[in-house]
Design brief:
2 domains; two-stranded parallel ribbon; 1 helix; glycoprotein; leucine-rich repeat
């Protein structure tokens, strides 16, 4: 009888214990799952943090590289700063280039400017104010503009000016020229003899090259300096010359040693009718003799 009671108790106990074991197992699994998820979350977060850190590091490196590049490019910028620009012109090592930019007046120039090239623009007038504060100018080139008038004092302060080119403009007369000129070019204008004063070239003791061809001159300019080597007067309206034009009528021993070329072709003059006009020259002028 006791045995039966024990068996019955055992049968009753077994079903109760099994679910308890299953529940404990499920609980353990649940805790494992939570632990695993928590671990994975932490692990992945750690990876993400590392990834973010690596991204930040990469961005910082990129920023550092950009800073390094900008720091290494500073000298280049400094070099560019040494080559300033003047509005529409380019200034480089004392030279100013204002060619074919349609300017109508002389632009403001750096005080250290020595050479100005303002060719093929629309400048109509030159004034003393244009160069008042630019005393170091040595060369001016205004070829191909529309210059009709130049104030007499325009070049008065340019004591160092050596070359002045006014070719292909609309000039009717010449201004006072600076004393140290070695080259003066005013070809292809509308200059008449009355537009050149008697003493315009007299004191230019360094002048070597004079180009006044393709104008409207009726005579050769007076008082041409001894320093001249080349004189271009072709294609004007010159009809006569005198014994004093190139030589000295009262000095038969006078010789012009420096003259290398005189061009008078294209003028309505027969050079053969004026033989005494060339006795001081080592070469005869180029032009019609009959």
């Amino acid at each position: 009888m006791k045995i039966l009671q024990s068996i019955l108790l055992l049968l009753l106990f077994v079903p109760l214990t099994k679910p308890a074991q299953s529940t404990q197992k499920n609980t353990d699994n649940f805790e494992e799952i939570l632990f695993t998820r928590d671990y994975e979350d932490q692990y992945l977060d750690g990876k993400n943090i590392k990834k973010k850190e690596s991204m930040m590091t990469s961005d910082e490196k990129s920023l550092q590289l950009q800073q390094d590049e900008s720091s290494t490019s500073l000298p280049l910028k400094k070099e560019n700063d040494e080559m300033p620009t003047c509005l529409l012109c380019v200034c480089l090592l004392g030279s100013v280039y204002c060619e074919e930019v349609d300017i109508v007046t002389v632009p403001p120039l750096p005080k250290e400017s020595a050479y100005l090239y303002a060719r093929f623009n629309k400048i109509k007038k030159l004034t003393a104010k244009d160069f008042a504060e630019i005393p170091n100018l040595r060369r001016l080139d205004f070829t191909g503009n529309l210059i009709e008038d130049i104030e007499d004092t325009t070049f008065s302060k340019l004591s160092l000016l050596e070359e002045l080119t006014l070719a292909e403009n609309q000039l009717l007369k010449l201004p006072v020229l600076p004393p140290k000129l070695t080259l003066f070019n005013a070809k292809y204008n509308k200059i008449k003899s009355k537009g050149i004063k008697a003493n315009t070239f007299k004191k230019l003791s360094n002048l070597s090259f004079l180009y006044l061809d393709h104008n409207a001159l009726e005579s050769v300019p007076l008082n041409l300096p001894e320093s001249l080597r080349v004189i271009h007067l072709q294609f004007n309206n010159i009809t006569s010359i005198t014994d004093d034009t190139f030589c000295k009528a009262n000095d038969t021993h006078y010789i012009r040693n420096r003259i290398e070329e005189i061009r008078l072709e294209g003028n309505p003059i027969a050079l053969g009718k004026h033989p005494n006009s060339f006795t001081c020259l080592k070469i005869l002028p180029i032009g019609p003799y009959f």
